[in-house]
Design a protein that fits this description.
The complex is a heterodimer of chains A (508) and B (535). By secondary structure, chain A is α/β, with parallel strands linked by helices. Chain A is 56% helix and 15% strand. In chain A, helix 1 (12-41) runs antiparallel to helix 2, helix 1 (12-41) runs parallel beside helix 4 and helix 3 packs parallel to helix 9. An 8-stranded mixed sheet of chain B has the order 1-20-16-19-18-17-9-10, sandwiched between helices. In chain B, strands 2, 3, 12, 13, 14, 15 and 21 form a 7-stranded mixed sheet that branches. The longest helix of chain B has 19 residues, at 174-192. The chains are: A alpha/beta (508), B alpha/beta (535).
Chain lengths: 508, 535
C-alpha cells in the first residue's frame, strides 16, 4: 500500500475539503431532525436521543452497504451527494408538512432520519475508496476522519448561533441541501478523470440545485404556511404534559406562553394583565397576609403579590407540575417572574384546584386570585361554576377579597357576565372590571367578596400600568360591554362552556 | 463448547419460554359474586333443623334495597327487635358498590331521578343522607348542584366519534326530527294526565300511578306495537327507545310493555313541556344510599346468611337459615317475616307458597354482566369529551359510567363501570349463556366492545373485574304489570309479607324502597304500631 504510484489527475487535497463540507451537512440534518421533533413533540431528551440513535445506526447501515458498491465509484459518489441533497435538504419541509397534515409524524420522522443517515453513512467509505489509490492509507484515514470531525464541530457551532436564529429550520435544511448538491457538482470537476463524459451528470446536479433554490425562495412563504400554521414565532420550548401542551415562542422582542395553542401571556404586555389581576384586591385589603392563587403556574401573579410587604404566605395551586417546573427553570420565564416561585413565602401545590378545595382544609386566606385558562373545556368549565365559588369561600376569611380572570367582556360578553352572575349565585358581591391588554384585547376580571364593598380607589405606587385613577376607571363599563342577562353556570349544566365556544367562534 | 454449539444450546433452552402462551390481556381481574353456588344449593337441599330457635319480632329475609328499607322503616318506628338476613357477604343487592385505591364504584344501579315533592320516602332518605338542601317557595325539593349529574351527562359513540347526548342529531332527517317531537309530545300528554283522584298516569313509585283502564290498556301491547300504531318508525328514535328498554328493563322494544316504555319517560318529566328530572348520582352509584341504610340496620344485619325455610306454625313463623360464614345452622321464631327477596327464591323457601300462587312463575328476570375497569390513565380522545354515561350506538352493551366524573377528577386514574344486559327473549337461555362465560371470555366481551371507541384502551387497564348477575332485573313484559294475579303477589301470605322491586314489575330503587316500606308498615300495623305512613 505504501508504494502506490501517485496519480496527479485526482485532486486529493480538494476532495478532503468536500469531506469537511459533507460532514457539516450530515450533522446539520441530524440537528434539524432532533430540534424539529423536540419542538413539535416536546420532551427534547427523548427526541434528541432517539433521532441521534437512529441516525448513527443508519450511518452504520450505510457504511455496511457501501461494500456492495463496486464499479463507477466516482459516479456513485456524485449521485449520492444529489440524493443526500434532496432528502436532507427537504427534510425540514417534509417533516413540518407531515406534522401539520398527517397523524403519522413519528413514522415519517424516523423514515427521513433513517434515509438521510443511510445515505450519509455511504459517503465517507466511498470517498475513502476513491482516494485510496492516491493517498497512503494512514494519511487517508487521518485526513478524512479529522476533517469529518472538524466538519461536525463547525456545524454544531453554526447551528445554534447563526443558522437557527437567522434562518430557521426550513431554510437551514434547504441551504445545506444546496451545499450537498454543490459538493456533487464540484466533485464532477475533481473526479473528472474517473467519470468519463460529465455533461449529463452536471445537468442533474444543476437540476437538483435549482429545485433546492426554488424551495429556498419559497421558504418564506412555506414557513408561513406550515410553521405559522402552528405558531407565529419561533418555538423555544415545547412540552406535552399529561394535562396540556406547553409552548413558549419568541419573536419581535417578546416571548409568549401558549397552553394547548391558546395564548396565556406575552412578555410585552403581561404586566398590564397581572397588575390588574392582583392590585385592585390589595387596594381594599392592603394588610392581607395569606394569599391563595388558583392556576397561575407561570408565577407572574405571584410576582405581583410579593410586591406587597404584608404578605406572609402564598399558596399556589396549579394542576400541572410541568408548568410550575418550567416557571422555575426556563430562564426567560424565570427572569420574567423574578424567580417568584422559589420565594420562601411561596408554597406550590400541584393539584386540580377544585378537587384540592373540596378535599383539604386549612387556615383561611385573606385574598384569593383565580387565574385559570378560559373555560373552553368541561374540565376547565367546572372551575367557573357556582360550586367552585362556594368551595372557594369555605377557605376564605369573612373579609377576604376574590379576583377572578373572567375572559373578554367585549369578545365574549355573555361568558363574562355569566361568570359574574355565577359568583353572585354563590353568594358573593361582585364588581367586574376590565382593561386593555394588547395581545389579548379588552380583558375582564371580577372582584368579589362575601360582604358589600366599594371599588378600590388606591393601588400600590410604582406600578407600570395601574395608578389610583386608572384603577377606579376600570370599573366603568361602556355600553357594548355592559351587563346582559345570562344563566348561572352550574356543575350540572355547564352553560358557560357552550356560551364561550359560541361567542369565540365569531372571532376565529 | 464451540460458540455455535453454545448459541444452539441457549436457543433451545429459550424455546420453551418463548412458546409459553402469552396471557391474552396485559391486566388481571376476577369474577366476583353473587354466590351462584350457594343460591342454587337452596333448590336441591334438605336442611336439618337447628338446635335452637331464637325468638324475634320481625325477621327480614334479604338485605337489598327492599329489605334494608323495611329495616329502616321498622327502626324508624322504634321497633328494634328484628334481624336482616342477607345471602351475600355484602348488602345492597343490585345497588351494591365497591371501592379501590382509585375510586368507589357501583356494581349495578347508579342513579335515581330527583324525586318530586310527593315522593316522601325518597325525600326523607335523601334528607337523612344530607343530600336534600331544602324546599323552594313552590314546595319543590332543592338539591345542591354537586349532587346531580355533572355536565356533560351523556355522549354517544357513532360513526367513529363521540356526540353530545344520546339522541344522534347529526344527520337526522326532517322526518326523524318530526317523529322525535311527536313521540315527546305523546310523552307530554301522558305527563299532563291526571285521573279524578288527581293521580298521574305515570309516577315514581308506581303505587302513586292511576289505575284507570285507559292507562292500564297500555300494558296490553308491546312498546314496539304502540310505536307501530303511531307510525313512529324513525330508526334514530327507535334506537333511543330500545336503548331505554335495555337500560331500565333488560328487554327490547318488542318484549317491553308499552306502559313501562312510557313510564320510563313520562314518570321522569317535571311537567308537560319541561325537561326530564335531573339525576342524583354518586361515585359509588346507589351504594351511597345503601351505606346509609346499612348503618341504620347496624348489627341487626347478618350477611352471608341464607334463609332455607319459612313455615307458619301456631305460635308464629319458624325460619331456618344457613350461616355460610360460620358454617352453622340458625333458627328463628318470628312473629312476622318480611320476605325481601325475589319470588323465584320465595317459592322454594316459603312453604306452601308455590302451589298457592302460580302467578309468580310468570316473572322473568334479565341477566346482566357488569364489569369494573380500573384505568391507570384516560385514553386519548379528540371528539366530544368524556361524559358521565358513555354509550356506544352499535353495541349490545350499554357503555360505561365513569366513577370519577362526579368526584370532579378529570385527570389520571379512573374506574369505568361497563353494563351489558342479556336481552334475548328466553331469560333462562340467556342466563345459561352468561353462566358459561369464564373471566377471559367476559374480559374479551368487554374489551371487544370498548376497543371500538378506545383502540388504545388495553394498555391503560390495570384491572378488570366482572359481576355476573343471574337475576339482575325484572322484565316489564306486556300484560304483566297490571295483571291482578301478579299484583296479588305483594299481599301477605300467612304472616309472611313480601317486598321486592320485582313486585312492581319495574326494577327501580324507588320501587324496592316503596315495597320495603309497605311491607314494614303492614307488619307494624299487625304488631300494633300505628304511626304515620312514610310513603
Amino acid at each position: 500500500m505504501d508504494d502506490l504510484p501517485q496519480q496527479p489527475t485526482l485532486r486529493a487535497p480538494l476532495l478532503f475539503i468536500s469531506v469537511l463540507l459533507i460532514a457539516s451537512c450530515g450533522l446539520i440534518y441530524e440537528l434539524v431532525a432532533g430540534t424539529l421533533s423536540s419542538y413539535l413533540l416536546g420532551d427534547s431528551v427523548t427526541q434528541f436521543s432517539t433521532v441521534i440513535g437512529v441516525y448513527l445506526s443508519a450511518m452504520g447501515l450505510g457504511s455496511w452497504l457501501s461494500k456492495f458498491l463496486h464499479r463507477g465509484l466516482a459516479r456513485r459518489f456524485v449521485d449520492l451527494e444529489l440524493a443526500v441533497a434532496l432528502v436532507g435538504g427537504f427534510s425540514a419541509p417534509i417533516l413540518f408538512q407531515a406534522f401539520a397534515h398527517t397523524h403519522a409524524f413519528r413514522v415519517v420522522l424516523y423514515a427521513v432520519v433513517l434515509a438521510v443517515g443511510t445515505l450519509v453513512g455511504l459517503e465517507i467509505p466511498i470517498l475513502m475508496r476513491i482516494l485510496k489509490d492516491q493517498v497512503r492509507f494512514k494519511d487517508l484515514v487521518a485526513g478524512v476522519l479529522t476533517l469529518d470531525y472538524i466538519g461536525a464541530l463547525f456545524a454544531s457551532l453554526l447551528f445554534p448561533l447563526l443558522l437557527m436564529p437567522k434562518l430557521g429550520l426550513v431554510r437551514t435544511s434547504l441551504l445545506f441541501g444546496l451545499l450537498n448538491a454543490a459538493v456533487g457538482l464540484w466533485s464532477t470537476h475533481l473526479l473528472q478523470s474517473q467519470l468519463g463524459p460529465t455533461r449529463m451528470i452536471r445537468l442533474r446536479c444543476l437540476a437538483v440545485m435549482v429545485l433546492l433554490a426554488v424551495g429556498l425562495g419559497f421558504a418564506g412563504k412555506f414557513t408561513l404556511a406550515v410553521e405559522e400554521e402552528i405558531f407565529a414565532d419561533d418555538i423555544v420550548y415545547a412540552r406535552d404534559s399529561p394535562y396540556q401542551r406547553i409552548v413558549l415562542t419568541r419573536g419581535r422582542g417578546s416571548f409568549q406562553l401558549f397552553l394547548n395553542g391558546n395564548l396565556q401571556f406575552s412578555s410585552a404586555d403581561e404586566y398590564r394583565y397581572h397588575e390588574a389581576l392582583v392590585h385592585p384586591a390589595f387596594g381594599l385589603r392592603p394588610d392581607a397576609k395569606r394569599i391563595l392563587i388558583c392556576g397561575g403556574g407561570d408565577g407572574l401573579a405571584v410576582r405581583e403579590v410579593l410586591k406587597h410587604p404584608s404578605v406572609q404566605e402564598v399558596v399556589l395551586v396549579d394542576l400541572d407540575p410541568a408548568m410550575t417546573d418550567m416557571a422555575r427553570q426556563q430562564p426567560m420565564v424565570r427572569q420574567l417572574n423574578g424567580a417568584s416561585l422559589d420565594d420562601p413565602r411561596v408554597k406550590v401545590i400541584n393539584a386540580d384546584a377544585m378537587v384540592w378545595l373540596q378535599e383539604t382544609t386549612g387556615s383561611p386566606f385573606d385574598l384569593a386570585f383565580v387565574d385559570f385558562p378560559d373555560p373552553n373545556t368541561y374540565a376547565l368549565g367546572k372551575l367557573y361554576t357556582s360550586r367552585f365559588y362556594r368551595l372557594l369561600q369555605r377557605r376564605l376569611t369573612d373579609e377576604a377579597m376574590i379576583t377572578v380572570q373572567s375572559t373578554s367582556p367585549l369578545m365574549a360578553r355573555e361568558s363574562f357576565w355569566c361568570i359574574a352572575a355565577t359568583m353572585e349565585a354563590a353568594g358573593l358581591k361582585v364588581r367586574p372590571y376590565h382593561l386593555a391588554v394588547p395581545s389579548f384585547g379588552v380583558w375582564g376580571f371580577a372582584l368579589a367578596s362575601k360582604q358589600d364593598f366599594e371599588v378600590p380607589t388606591h393601588v400600590l405606587p410604582g406600578l407600570r400600568h395601574l395608578s389610583d385613577a386608572a384603577t377606579t376607571a376600570m370599573f366603568a363599563f361602556p355600553k357594548d360591554m355592559d351587563r346582559v342577562p345570562v344563566q348561572v353556570n352550574r356543575l350540572d349544566n355547564q352553560v358557560l362552556v357552550h356560551l364561550y365556544a359560541r361567542e369565540w367562534r365569531r372571532w376565529s | 463448547m464451540k460458540r455455535r454449539d453454545f448459541l444452539a444450546a441457549s436457543a433451545a433452552s429459550a424455546l420453551p419460554l418463548a412458546c409459553r402462551p402469552k396471557p391474552e390481556f396485559p391486566f388481571s381481574g376476577e369474577l366476583v359474586g353473587p354466590d351462584l353456588a350457594l343460591g342454587h344449593w337452596l333448590r336441591g337441599g334438605a336442611f336439618p333443623d337447628p338446635d335452637r330457635f331464637e325468638p324475634v319480632s320481625v325477621l327480614v329475609v334479604g338485605g337489598g334495597v327492599a329489605g334494608l328499607s323495611a329495616a329502616w322503616r321498622l327502626a324508624g318506628e322504634g321497633l328494634d327487635d328484628f334481624h336482616v338476613l342477607e345471602l351475600e357477604p355484602e348488602p345492597g343487592g343490585t345497588s351494591r358498590s365497591g371501592q379501590n385505591h382509585v375510586s368507589a364504584f357501583p356494581w349495578a344501579a347508579h342513579y335515581i331521578p330527583v324525586p318530586d315533592r310527593g315522593n316522601h320516602a325518597v325525600l326523607r332518605l335523601l334528607q337523612e343522607c344530607g343530600v336534600l338542601e331544602g324546599f323552594d317557595a313552590k314546595g319543590d325539593p332543592v338539591f345542591p348542584e354537586e349532587a346531580t349529574v355533572r355536565a356533560p351527562e351523556e355522549r354517544l359513540f357513532a360513526y367513529g366519534q363521540w356526540w353530545e347526548g344520546l339522541y344522534l342529531r347529526a344527520g337526522a332527517s326532517a322526518e326523524d326530527e318530526r317523529q322525535y317531537h311527536a313521540f315527546f309530545q305523546e310523552v307530554d300528554r301522558w305527563a299532563a294526565f291526571r285521573d279524578r283522584k288527581g293521580r298521574p298516569a305515570f309516577s315514581i313509585p308506581r303505587s302513586r300511578c292511576s289505575d284507570l283502564p285507559e292507562t292500564r290498556a297500555l300494558d296490553q301491547l308491546s312498546f314496539e306495537a304502540w310505536l307501530d300504531a303511531r307510525g313512529l318508525s324513525s330508526p334514530r328514535l327507535r334506537w333511543l327507545l330500545d336503548y331505554a328498554c335495555r337500560d331500565d328493563y333488560g328487554s327490547r322494544l318488542d318484549t317491553t310493555s308499552a306502559w313501562a316504555g312510557l313510564f320510563y319517560f313520562a314518570a321522569r318529566k317535571q311537567g308537560p313541556g319541561e325537561d326530564s328530572r335531573p339525576l342524583l348520582t354518586w361515585p359509588q352509584g346507589n351504594g351511597f344510599l345503601i351505606d346509609h341504610l346499612r348503618q341504620v340496620a347496624g348489627a341487626r344485619l347478618n350477611c352471608g346468611v341464607m334463609a332455607t325455610s319459612i313455615r307458619a306454625e301456631k305460635d308464629g313463623l319458624r325460619v331456618t337459615a344457613w350461616d355460610a360464614l360460620n358454617q352453622r345452622r340458625l333458627g328463628f321464631r318470628a312473629r312476622r317475616v318480611i320476605f325481601a327477596g325475589p319470588q323465584h327464591v320465595a317459592r322454594h323457601v316459603v312453604e306452601g307458597l308455590h302451589s298457592a300462587r302460580p302467578a309468580s312463575t310468570r316473572i322473568r328476570n334479565a341477566p346482566w354482566m357488569v364489569a369494573n375497569l380500573t384505568l391507570r390513565a384516560r385514553p386519548k380522545e379528540s371528539s366530544f369529551p368524556p361524559a358521565w354515561d358513555n354509550v356506544p350506538r352499535d353495541s349490545e352493551a350499554l357503555g360505561y359510567v365513569m366513577a370519577t366524573h362526579q368526584s370532579l377528577r378529570d385527570y389520571g386514574p379512573t374506574v369505568w363501570t361497563w353494563y351489558r344486559p342479556f336481552t334475548g327473549p328466553d331469560c333462562d337461555a340467556e342466563r345459561a349463556r352468561l353462566r358459561a362465560l369464564d373471566w377471559p371470555a367476559c374480559a374479551r366481551m368487554v374489551m371487544d366492545d370498548l376497543r371500538k371507541a378506545h383502540p388504545d384502551l388495553e394498555q391503560l387497564v390495570a384491572r378488570l373485574d366482572v359481576m355476573r348477575w343471574g337475576h339482575a332485573m325484572v322484565r316489564s313484559a306486556p300484560g304483566l304489570l297490571w295483571d291482578p294475579d301478579f299484583l296479588a303477589l305483594a299481599t301477605p301470605f300467612g304472616g309472611v309479607h313480601f317486598a321486592h322491586t320485582e313486585l312492581s314489575g319495574l326494577a327501580l330503587f324507588e320501587e324496592a324502597q316503596d315495597h320495603g316500606l309497605r311491607a314494614a308498615e303492614e307488619v307494624l300495623m299487625a304488631l300494633g304500631h300505628y304511626g304515620r305512613t312514610w310513603r
